[in-house]
Design goal:
alpha/beta; binds nicotinamide-adenine-dinucleotide; Rossmann fold; globular; about 15% strand; seven-stranded parallel sheet
Length: about 250
């Protein structure tokens, strides 16, 4: 299917690995110019080199408001517009409330929630002027469970904030031609989850997934591409669950 993304400019955060790298590659396959942004500049450069033509590495810590604004400013200066922002950067703290520290809470909120707000806010001036924009936020099924498979209450709370932010922004920005949606993945094997999936844990988590497998990074990236296109132009304020049926149990 031609998603007609050929003239679009995208910024993908946390794209130096895992799900974000697949999102960047998928958007590029559909013809987008893609800024591959990550706080790990070397990882961003490596992914951008793999993605190839019309992909540009960017060092960006999304939890730093001035860096978020500078990144968007660079995209608009170099490409003349910004059409798609995928807020994918995120960190996971698996500590329970009893074991967690104030620093854990501050870190998770700064990256997972403030980072999404900063990048949205930074892109809005251009998107409102263009009367066009697609914002896609990567939440998690842990938003619906107050934490997910790894007992991650702090993380789940920030992802629930992302779901609420998505709905509220969608309502406020619809008059400006901007769609805002989120995706709530189930478990995806990436560096975020890899070390947590001991053989016993893997078996237990898989037993709770009706489709019997973890999500691939492409399972998430394909939904991002659809939401980034006008094929799903009438969808806004939604959180699309991509979890192999995990939440049905
Ligand atoms: N892996 C899963 O099972 C899963 C499930 C649900 C949701 N998610 C969400 O998907 C997104 C991607 O996760 P992943 O599994 O690919 O993780 P990952 O750890 O493999 O990749 C995350 C990337 O984000 C970057 N990053 C971290 N902090 C950053 C910051 N402050 N600014 C910019 N970049 C930063 C990292 O350097 C890394 O390249 C996250 O938002 C995560 O919460 C993941």
């Amino acid at each position: 299917m031609d998603l007609k993304l050929g003239d679009k400019v995208a910024l993908v955060t946390g794209a130096g690995g895992g799900i974000g790298a697949s999102i960047a590659a998928t958007l590029a396959e559909h013809g987008c110019s893609v800024y591959v942004a990550d706080s790990n500049g070397a990882a961003a450069a490596k992914v951008a080199a793999q993605v190839g033509q019309r992909s540009y590495p960017l060092t960006l810590d999304v939890g730093n408001a001035s860096q978020a604004f500078a990144a968007v400013e660079q995209v608009v200066r170099e490409r003349g517009r910004i059409d798609i922002v995928v807020n994918n950067a995120g960190i996971l703290k698996t500590r329970s409330i009893l074991d967690s520290s104030i620093e854990d809470w501050d870190d998770v909120c700064r990256v997972n929630l403030s980072g999404v707000y900063y990048c949205c806010k930074a892109a809005l001036t251009s998107m409102v002027e263009q009367h066009y924009g697609k914002i896609i936020n990567i939440a998690s099924v842990s938003a619906m469970k107050g934490g997910g498979s790894f007992g991650n209450v702090l993380y789940g709370t920030t992802k629930a904030g992302v779901v609420a932010l998505t709905k509220g922004l969608a309502r406020e920005l619809a008059p400006f031609g901007i769609n805002v949606n989120a995706i709530a993945p189930g478990v995806v094997e990436t560096s975020m989850t890899g070390s947590l999936l001991t053989p016993e844990r893997r078996k237990a988590v898989l037993a709770g997934i009706p489709l019997g497998r973890f999500a691939s990074t492409d399972d998430i990236a394909h939904v991002v591409a659809l939401l980034a296109s006008d094929v799903l132009g009438y969808v806004t304020g939604e959180t699309i669950v991509v979890d192999g049926g995990y939440l049905t149990r």
